[in-house]
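Example complex used in Figure S2.
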Amino acid sequence: MKLNGAQILINSLKSEGVKYIFGYPGGAVLHIYDALNACNEIEHILVRHEQGATHAADGYARVSGKCGVTLVTSGPGITNAVTGIATAYMDSIPMVIISGQVPSALIGNDAFQEVDAVGITRSCVKHNFLIKDINQITNTIKKAFHIATTGRPGPVLIDIPKDITIATIESKPYPNSVKMRSYQIPSRADSAQINTAVDLIASAKRPIIYSGGGCIIGNADFELRAFTRQLGFPITQTLMGLGAYPATDKQSLGMLGMHGTYEANMAMHGADCVIALGVRFDDRVTANVDKFCPDAKIIHIDIDPSSIAKNVSVDIAIVGDVKSVLNDLIIKMKTKSIQDISFWWSQIDQWRSIDSLAYQNKSGVIKPQTVIETLYEVTKGNAIVASDVGQHQMWAAQYYQFDQPRRWISSGGLGTMGFGLPAAMGAKLAKPELDVACITSEGSIQMMTQELSTMLQYATPVKIVNLNNGYLGMVRQWQEFFYDKRYSMSYMDALPDFVKLSESYGHIGIKVEKELDLKPALIEAFKQKDRTVFLDILTDPTENVFPMIPSGAGHHEMLLTGRDEMTSTNDEGLNLV
Amino acid sequence: MRHIISVLLENEAGALSRVAGLFSARGFNIESLTVAATNDSTLSRMTIVSIGDDGIIEQIVKQLNKLIDVVKVTDLTATEHIERELLLVKVNVNQQTQADIDKQIDVFSCKIVDVSEDTYTIEMAGKSQKISDFLESLGASKILEVSRTGVTGVCMKREN
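Predicted assembly (737 residues):
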């Protein structure tokens, strides 16, 4: 049977088991949309902006563990998608982006809606393709999904000129496998390195496990729990790793890094052995690298060799899938005796007793931390929480205790404001049976409010928890601390009435101005199973995120709320952002 | 330290810009870069000269390996290897300078590939340092135009 390129493309996506495409039509992809119209197996979610499409596909991928798929047109379609692609790239999220391109004959002629999509996206994709021949479609799609979902995952873009979607060929079966001599997934980790690691772990007196997003992406939460419990070691998790190990467990020290807990950062600083699992030693985690873990031998396990020794030099490097390496470690540690670390635990408990997440309630205002704690209570810790970026993101990470993986959806690497709402929509499609909350703020939400419309059309009920303090809070916090309270452009003077705004999009809006009303409002919102509810919560405009490592400082130089005076950072620190 | 990195990559459109883009995006330095097809028409060989400490070179090699189109990366500097660069230089020749130029051509075993009324075009192949020495010995005042290919190289033993 003869099929056109668009039909072959859609059939290929069907063969890949794609359930949802998040996209937006346009001239260059009209044939693809025509083929999609005849396809019952794939549901297309028509977003209101291509950035929303990429974030929604991203949220879907983070929750489901499957590859997110986005379809956009040429020119502005793909440039709008770039922010979402870069967001997925920084957090290693599997995604395939299909972008239309002007007809092959017009490429390079500055045609209408032409951009060099492959060139523009090159530095923020794992790989990209320009299809030049209709015969390449199936193979390219097979390769794209293979690359996006294996090894360290990431977004892969396929740019397809319009004439290729129109041309026809005799249809061929979709390939079962793909061979690429230049792309090999790391095989089993080196057992000699694992043995060295085992010896080091067995001799550690002040050990700490530092785990990250790799444990979630690599589906290693079960192994991480088994390994951590087997050893009885303290564990701290990165922003991206939250939920892989239960936050409420006694061995968990919470998040580490710039706004991590005091005990997590102090334990990192005091450790003699750091077991780093699926992490990349990001600058938000390490703080000043010159002061990072001064006494520790570091074991680093990661699937991406380029993550190892990039920011921090390590003592034992193990390249491999974190799940299989953890399995090896679990088996090998069974026959090893480990040191008594009760002294180390008593030291950690002392740091813990400082209670670095304590905050002072103030009458007459709602504390943002209280909102997150109440949300946790009302949802019994079972909701999927998507966040935007800023202060509220840090409070969400600090005060919502994630006990399960793939429940915390946040743009960690790129820090993309606007991510939360579309990501929450994608999350709801991935797990419709779970409650989904979007923790956001009046700054972030305004970057993607148009997706409220998509959420009505596709009935993806999300509870939007808007921490409205009138300020771009993280910017304001830094200006307060480091710029002598010169609040340059961090205050928005003309905010919309979010209740009316959400009502006009067909959702429920509730304004919360008093702490007394907070819990009832949250309970009411989550009772509305089938509706999106926008909770506009007025929070303390002066509240800051604590504890904090000022940039340029080390893990042991944390500032605690109400206890330490914030002093200006040094020049080196200001440079670090 | 100066390293010569040899990259075997798929002969695909855009492969060169992936490598060049990687170097600029990550702030790695490129002293020279050459690329051409190999005996296998589906593969290209790229030879990059970069300067950096061990940590930077390690990252360069790892990041290159991470590119999907890259099949193999070898740091030639870490092995016994041959490096060569080709120079074409056009010099100003007159009665005062000719004897000296002829002498330098002789000393450096170069070849005159074209002669015009008042110029020579000289060809020389050799290590980059030797080429630089030759250019220096000619003296800036005589040189009209310089074109260097950048370094290419191979490792001396059979690779596994």
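The CA atoms of residues 109 and 124 of chain B lie 8 Å apart. Residues 54-66 of chain B form the longest helix (13 residues).
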